[in-house]
């Protein structure tokens, strides 16, 4: 589902964005899926790392609290979610650099980041936007840099397929179908990434949250 603004807010509708943190807490094994994502990212001191689609900054906050020497940044498209991210970071006593962009060109030079990661974002993007964003991620990564994605993927059981209908009803069938059909890895390869792998998954109340890893 895409609004007239050209993007889908965190919970599909603007007026729901302020309930995002609560919704994730209630519907997802939050600590488990974020911890595993960050373990896979393996952030190290001094590394430049971007979260694409930072939402309310929960991943950025978790990483910074674990290791304040990681050079973190975030990129999102929604000013409403940025305001919530700033508020959440301020509560923790720090503000990390987070940016907004126009949905086209990422505001960073070529080969700038050691790592890029993203969680629960690609299922919001239509096919062309998925391809465009992956190309931008590829461009801003250093050679040998890595991309870590966690998002809805192929349902790992009939029960997971049924559960995922709820996400599709809220977020739209069009943008979620490619995730469900397991197409994210092939999009990553088409953007130029090598060694693209699905590294694992967690079955949740809403569907199978899958982990992907790739290298530039
Ligand atoms: C479901 S939230 C995920 C937030 C966070 N990554 C997490 O794990 O909780 C999806 C986020 O993707 C952002 N988003 C949607 N379309 C985008 C786009 N084209 N470029 C960047 N971010 C986008 C939304 O604004 C929202 O913050």
Automatic annotation (TrEMBL):
<dbReference type="Pfam" id="PF08241">
    <property type="entry name" value="Methyltransf_11"/>
</dbReference>
<keyword id="KW-0808">Transferase</keyword>
<dbReference type="GO" id="GO:0008757">
    <property type="term" value="F:S-adenosylmethionine-dependent methyltransferase activity"/>
</dbReference>
<dbReference type="InterPro" id="IPR013216">
    <property type="entry name" value="Methyltransf_11"/>
</dbReference>
<dbReference type="GO" id="GO:0032259">
    <property type="term" value="P:methylation"/>
</dbReference>
<dbReference type="InterPro" id="IPR029063">
    <property type="entry name" value="SAM-dependent_MTases_sf"/>
</dbReference>
<protein>
    <submittedName>
        <fullName>Ubiquinone/menaquinone biosynthesis C-methylase UbiE</fullName>
    </submittedName>
</protein>
<feature type="domain" description="Methyltransferase type 11">
    <location>
        <begin position="50"/>
        <end position="148"/>
    </location>
</feature>
<keyword id="KW-0489">Methyltransferase</keyword>
<keyword id="KW-0830">Ubiquinone</keyword>
């Amino acid at each position: 589902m895409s609004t007239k603004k050209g993007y889908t807010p965190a919970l599909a509708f603007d007026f729901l964005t302020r309930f995002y943190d609560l919704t994730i807490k209630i519907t997802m094994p939050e600590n488990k899926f974020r911890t595993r994502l960050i373990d896979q990212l393996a952030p190290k001191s001094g590394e430049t790392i971007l979260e694409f689609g930072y939402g309310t900054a929960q991943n950025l906050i978790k990483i910074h609290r674990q290791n304040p020497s990681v050079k973190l940044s975030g990129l999102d498209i929604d000013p409403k979610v940025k305001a919530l991210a700033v508020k959440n970071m301020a509560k923790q006593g720090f503000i990390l650099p987070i940016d907004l962009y126009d949905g086209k060109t990422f505001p960073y030079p070529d080969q700038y980041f050691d790592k890029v990661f993203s969680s629960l974002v690609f299922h919001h993007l239509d096919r062309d936007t998925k391809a465009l964003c992956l190309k931008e991620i590829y461009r801003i990564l250093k050679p040998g840099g890595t991309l870590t994605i966690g998002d809805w993927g192929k349902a790992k059981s009939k029960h997971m397929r049924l559960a995922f209908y709820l996400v599709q009803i809220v977020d739209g069938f069009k943008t979620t179908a490619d995730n469900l059909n397991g197409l994210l890895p092939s999009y990553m390869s088409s953007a130029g990434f090598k060694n693209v792998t699905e590294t694992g998954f967690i079955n949740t109340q809403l569907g199978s949250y899958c982990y992907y890893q790739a290298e530039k």
